[in-house]
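FOLDING PROBLEM:
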Amino acid sequence: MGQSQHTPLLDTITSPADLRRLDRKQLPQLASELRAFLIESVSQTGGHLSSNLGTVELTIALHAVFNTPEDRLVWDVGHQCYPHKVLTGRRQGMNKLRMRHGVAGFPKRCESPYDTFGVGHSSTSISAALGMALAAKQKGEDRKAVAIIGDGAMSAGMAFEALNNAGVADADMLVILNDNEMSISPPVGALNNILTRLTSSKTFNAAREAGRHMLGFAPPLLELARRAEEHVKGMIAPGTLFEEFGFHYYGPIDGHDLDALIPTLENLKSIKGPKFLHVITKKGQGYKLAEADPILYHGVGKFAAGEGIQSGKGGGKLTFTQVFGDWLCDMAKADSRLVGITPAMREGSGMVRFANEHADRYYDVGIAEQHAVTFAAGLACEGLKPVVAIYSTFLQRAYDQLVHDVALQNLPVVFAVDRGGLVGADGPTHHGTFDISYVTCIPNMVVMTPSDEAECRQMLSTAFAHDGPSLVRYPRGSGCGAIPSTELHTLPLGKAEIRRQGKDVALLAFGPLLGAALAAGETLDATVVNMRYVKPIDAAMILELAGNHSLLVSIEENAVIGGAGSEVERVLAEQGINLPILRLGLPDRFIDHGEQGQLLAELGLDKDGIVQAVTARLNRK
């Protein structure tokens, strides 16, 4: 993925300074070459594609106009940062994108000075850019701060909190709304409807051309142009939402038209105060297959660029996500009280079938995790049985709501927590490494860790039958391949099971690491227990094992601090039992991106790692 006869202009760009030396007439060619490189590159590595294809021209324009990295560009979420990474000296590293020790899939401060803010979760860019703008003001530094946020991320409460603050702080910053009418799933909510009405208005579309020409005026006429533009917009869209927050609103303009983008950005750069530029782009721009199906091409594995993603071939293992999706539909047929909720992750959480079959009981609340949880609490207050499908890493954003609005009121909300544990290529912003620790300490919560696909279905049914808040956490991808029953059977609450009887050492496995524990148990001739529940933990089982084993070993794919192993220790401590405990889990650091199995092996959570850790502890004794 180095130099190519197909990208002669891109081959000359090693930094934004090189880009800024180009003639403006060369930039469309650069955009074409960059887009071709991205398609070929991502097809070989996998990653986020359609969102990156949609921001090629915008990225070029930003680096052409602003003096990066001195001027700060803050990308929201980071799904669209690949063009930025290529233009900022990381093109040669794109052949190891999202691989162990390779280029990260999201902006990462330690990777490059051009990555001004580390992201991965949505709706943080305006807050961060505001902080940078006010820091520059306080330090007397003349540099710009630009937040680039999508229309999906714009729907989250944090974005509006930042807008509310920025407007009154009189910050010298620019917010660019990259409006592609998409997040990951199709857009939802009133804000999207407002933007759609605004951009589809024939009158406004005619007027925006006038606005564009006004922004091309020489600086002495800018103020007159701004006032004239505001008058035009006032007739078309009275009380424009963003101007009510104290921002000067411009646009919408075509985000793929460099002749519109660059003059507009140059003029906005010279205007002081909070500014808001509305840019219209198309996800998948320039690659017809991605344009036609931007959801399919949002996050991709390896594929042949000329052929596109080939689906329908079958042969793949059933994933935990699919198990959840099937269970949700089956339980909905069995119990009319069930409602399904997702914060803009319909596809990722396996809810497409449910959304189609039970549209009247399906709620996509947009990128609004806090709202999703309290909304579920309100439904539960009225006798319904909400199931909130959410990634472990995103549930962190709704922790207060989980505590105060659900658990404190002991409401029967089921949290189907996907991506529990290491997720692989998306790295530390997406690993689900803390949920056992941060949920187990909450009163009234039930915390379940299914060991395989079949048990996942049983635990979801158990959680749904429980009259109180519960959480079932399962990993990304597939487990051992256990085929779930078609029934909706439940399991005894808080009961573990011995899967292998051994001696001296007892391995207590929480979740899918049971497979590695069983393999290690054969080598060690150890007892292996499928613990199933972190809370209520099977204290009777732990005490029984303590009576006839000299070492207990807890194994979990969660932070070892405050995790399931801590609960095992607590049970023994409360009974005054002084027995050695070896706690195996994730270390006290953020885990970088890489293939899931590779990461687990490096962290000693595969069969060999467990055997080595136990042997070392026994030898120490």
